[in-house]
Write a structure and sequence with these properties.
Blueprint: E1 5-8, H1 17-31, H2 38-56, H3 62-75, H4 83-95, H5 104-111, E2 116-121, H6 125-135, E3 143-146, H7 147-150, H8 157-165, E4 175-179, H9 182-192, E5 195-199, E6 214-216, H10 222-227
Parallel strand pairs: 1-2, 1-4, 2-3, 4-5, 5-6
Organism: Desulfosporosinus youngiae DSM 17734
Keywords: Hydrolase
Protein name: HAD hydrolase, subfamily IA
Length: 228
């Protein structure tokens, strides 16, 4: 199959969000007078994941995710903090982090010569744009679609319908979604009739109900799929 339109997820597909997240959280807690530990990260991660799941299921708004995750985390430790203020600090720290996944720059440079590249992300508009520019990836993309601007998030069909309707000369047969998340990127592609490439760099098991068109463990493998 020959593809012309490549729809890239960003976090943990091209940008190493996990590394950026740990670094930013460490700085955030330190500047607010707390020691950041593995235990505290596990607590925050549990609260944060549940809030994002609720958001992706459409039961809460994005603002609630962002402005309550730190206050809810600290409340479990019997500490009261200003969740919105902490979020603003975290957002600033996160926006200054632009660690790349191995091979991301090279793949984007190579494929942008022969393909049209687009970014599709559930991240925050201002943060993602800043990170893409700092990482040197921004100019490779024809357009960047984020859930905050669109008002819908992956994997909802409404998100992908918006993307498809805002790409000139879009044809699903020419498109490929590349992402690390089975529940957002791959599931979203399946529901929208677009081929998918699962970036499985952590060797996860794929459930039978979510089958990606392709699976790769290294971004360098993408070139073979897209240029065959």
């Amino acid at each position: 199959m020959s593809y012309k339109l490549l729809l890239f997820d960003l976090d943990d597909t091209l940008l190493d969000f996990s590394a950026n997240e740990i670094d930013s959280l460490n700085k955030l807690f330190q500047q607010n007078g707390y020691t950041f530990s593995d235990e505290l990260f596990r607590l925050y991660n549990s609260v944060n994941k549940q809030l994002w799941t609720d958001y992706e299921n459409g039961t809460i708004a994005l603002d609630e995710v962002l402005n309550s995750r730190f206050s809810k985390t600290m409340l479990k430790l019997d500490k009261i903090v200003d969740g919105m203020e902490w979020e603003n600090q975290y957002r600033e720290l996160l926006g200054n982090g632009y660690q790349l996944i191995d091979g991301a720059l090279e793949v984007c440079q190579s494929l942008s010569v022969s393909h049209r590249l687009f970014a599709i992300t559930n991240g925050i508009t201002k943060t993602q744009l800043k990170r893409l520019k700092q990482a040197g990836l921004y100019d490779f993309f024809e357009d960047i679609f984020d859930s905050q601007s669109i008002g819908f998030q992956k994997p909802s069909k409404a998100f992908f319908d918006y993307v498809m309707s805002h790409i000139k000369d879009f044809d699903a047969r020419d498109a490929l979604i590349i992402g690390d998340s089975l529940n957002t990127d791959i599931k979203g592609g399946l529901m929208s009739g677009i081929d998918t490439c699962w970036f499985n760099r952590t060797s996860q098991e794929c459930p039978p109900e979510i089958q990606s068109t392709y699976t790769i463990t290294d971004l360098a493998q993408l070139s073979h799929i897209c240029t065959r």
